[in-house]
Amino acid sequence: ARKYLGLPEQGFCILFVGNDYRKKGLPTLLRALRELPKSCFVAVVGNSAQISSFKSEADSLGLRDRVYFLGPLTDVTVAYQAANMLAHPTLEDTFAMVVLEAMSHGLPVVVSDKQYCGITALLTPEINALVLANPRDPKALAFALRRCLEDAGLNSRLSVQALEFAHKHQWDSLASAQERIYFKVALNAI
To answer: pLDDT tens-digit profile of 5-46?
Structure first.
């Protein structure tokens, strides 16, 4: 998967997926990356219109060789396969389907707290995800990412729990449950 995407075959790949890079927290992730070992790199998937300005930002932070802008992908599966984890330090996300998708691929995730990201209300911090109280804090994000990098037991546990969470929260099941609620409300309104 890494070869297909043009990513380094060695090292720790942190995946970032989002169309609004700023709102989804890429500036924080770039600053956090400076705090991590040089073997860590970020693969960015999403809106190609924002790539040039964020490439400049990565360059100004001295990260030119550690940030890979992949643009939009028709199928993000290959990016999940290439990654070691997902970072989603979003400032605003109603649900964050990307988190659920990453978890369904067994990726450990670092995600913003529930006031910023809806899916976090369903997660159990330290069990199936690492949760950021402040998605604008690059040191806190770097600390969470470093924990996954350095603690194989934590990384493995988060991966196993991510798969279990994703299995219990498949999108089809969530949509069906939502539909049942709508029908119940509609029937009660009659």
So the answer is: 999 999 999 999 999 999 999 999 999 999 999 999 999 999
Residue in the block written with tokens 């028709």: 74
Question: Alpha-carbon distance 111 to 75, whole Å?
Answer: 22
**Host H or E run for residue 71:** strand 67-71
Nearest residue to 27 via CA among 111, 109, 137, 114:
137
pLDDT at residue 175, rounded to an integer: 66
Alpha carbon distance 117, 80 (integer Å): 20
- The separation between the first and the last C-alpha atoms of the chain, rounded to the nearest angstrom, is 53
Low-confidence ranges of the chain (pLDDT < 70): 171-178, 190
Return the axis-axis angle of helices 152-168 and 97-104, rounded to nearest 10°: 110
Query: Does residue 105 sit in helix, strand or coil?
Result: coil
- Are 157 and 45 in contact, with CB atoms under 8 Å apart? no
Task: Tell me which amino acid residue 27 is.
Answer: P
The predicted structure's pLDDT at residue 17: 98
Neighbours of 151 (CB within 10 A): 12
